Automatic annotation (TrEMBL):
Gene3D superfamilies: Peptidase S8/S53 domain. Residues 1-10 have a biased composition (Gly residues). GO terms for molecular function: serine-type endopeptidase activity. Residues 1-38 are annotated as: Disordered. This is S8 family serine peptidase. Keywords: Hydrolase, Protease, Serine protease. The active site is at D285 (charge relay system), H321 (charge relay system), S491 (charge relay system). Belongs to the peptidase S8 family. It comes from Duganella rivi. Pfam families: Peptidase_S8. GO terms for biological process: proteolysis. Residues 276-549 form the Peptidase S8/S53 domain.
Amino acid sequence: MPKNPNGGGSTPPDLSAPVDSAEPAPRTNGRADSTGRNVGARKKQYVIAPRLAEGLQTLGLQPLQFAALEQALRDSDDIEVIDKVGPKSVLGALADGMGGNQGVLVARMTEQKAAALHQQGQGRLLVEHDQHLNLMEPSLRQPAMVTGVAPIDSSGPVLNAIISVFGKDGAPQANAEVSLFGSMLPASGVTGANGQVTLSLFGETADTVRGLYVKPKADYWSFYQRDPDISSDDANVVVLRALSDWPALKGFPQQRCYGWGQKAMRLDQLPASYRGQGVKIAIIDSGAATTHDNLRTIHAGFDVLNKQTNPNGWDQDSIGHGSHCAGVIAAADIASGMRGFAPDAEVHACKLFPGGQISQLIDALEYCIDKQIDVVNLSLGGAEISEALEQQIIRAKRAGIACIVAAGNSGGAVQYPASSPNVLAVAAIGKLDEFPADSYHAQTLDSNVDAYGYFTAKFSCLGPQVAVCAPGVAITSCVPPNNFAAWDGTSMAAPHVTGLAALCLAHHPDFQSQQYKARGAARVERLFQIIRSSARRVSLGDQSRIGYGLPDVLVSVGLQAQAGAAPQAMQPQSMGMMPMMAPLYDPYALGVMPFYRPAVQYAPLAW
């Protein structure tokens, strides 16, 4: 890429300049008739942002005049600017301590135009695909040896099976997800009002069926049967267990209880006055159903998806994911249901799902900066690293916002943004005897079980970026409209740590002192350090699966010192890394100028 001899001056890219490679002509697939139109690539959505000033200084470049670029984009005939995300107040504009935030543009254009714009930016401009984000909920895993192949011969065998799902006292369970696995493509469906669904497995017989999975909508345990005896002549009946039939949930939800994960972190031993007062928490997820008795205390939020038409639609949660996270973090301490970690914290529900994208997450974090949020729960992730999002996470951290992020559920490397050095990544663990053996939760079990029954969840992502682990298997919490469900995922683990972080900020003596009372990156780092230092080793999994281990509530709020020595941890040198804190910004860490360094902070920390 040619370098400007004057250090890449502030002149915006010339959008009228010709693109080096002409856009390909639409393919006709050999058709010349008028019965339809050929499918081609549509314009894609991009995030456009100026690179952070410190990144430009490293490269010897001058900042870009972003206002001029914005005008040029808006004047371009083949570029559609659909949104601008930026500071919502003077407070937001000054949040990074530099006062130079110019916002982020969201625009639609062709790939060729985006490539030309990026090249003309000469390293001063970020042009990224506005990728879609996913909730960190584990997908249903197929049994071993099942393939995604469809039968070629349509005249082959077909297994038609009726699955009838019932609950307590023979009540049919509507809207239960049912999946039947053979040796090829599975069949899935949802039960009707009568609790029944008919599934068809092509190319299969009753003898080749390898698994039956049932996920109820609410109030019951899931069901999984390996190698089920399926009949094609009679209805196949599945009777689900009620959550309240489990000994640890006896009398639930009429009688209030703590989840097993909260008890594992010793929330039930915390004095009643420790309730997270004065701390602001944002849950960037699918909203929060305030129809739920335990979530009625949530009064604020922002619907990022519908900000132009209904920004107050955050209290509608069609998925239930955000409500489930909110219940773990801050469910009201009332006589029924469950108590969250920080029931007196001020909770803001930012609705980003279904369909959230990087630009909208940037917008949600801008809301958090403007509202002076203290802790953000991010039970989400993307397929690729985003430097534009990382710049916003850095701004949030400098504004005193701690981002707690789910590590991911692919069973592979930690996903982004949990892999960022500026957040706290949380992996998931489970515990034996906290779910029925015939529930799907049993399929998350791996061989790393310790003497207390803790195990690393099979789906949980791993890597040196994992800071701590938390309960993420068979976690019971709130779902709309006023029900409960037991779910798995690092999505469920992260809220445990978010709630603990709120308690720590509200009650640990350090955050009442002048040094850490002021908002800023130092306060966030101190919070992360205390959480890591409170943890204890659990499961027999290696350090990359659990980080420092399972955080402890009583230690995190300063009521108890960590018993014994600091938690044993992998030394950074043993992983080929230097024992140092990750920088806020390191443009050469990946060799392609984005920000990310796979830092590990496993050396014991004194506090």
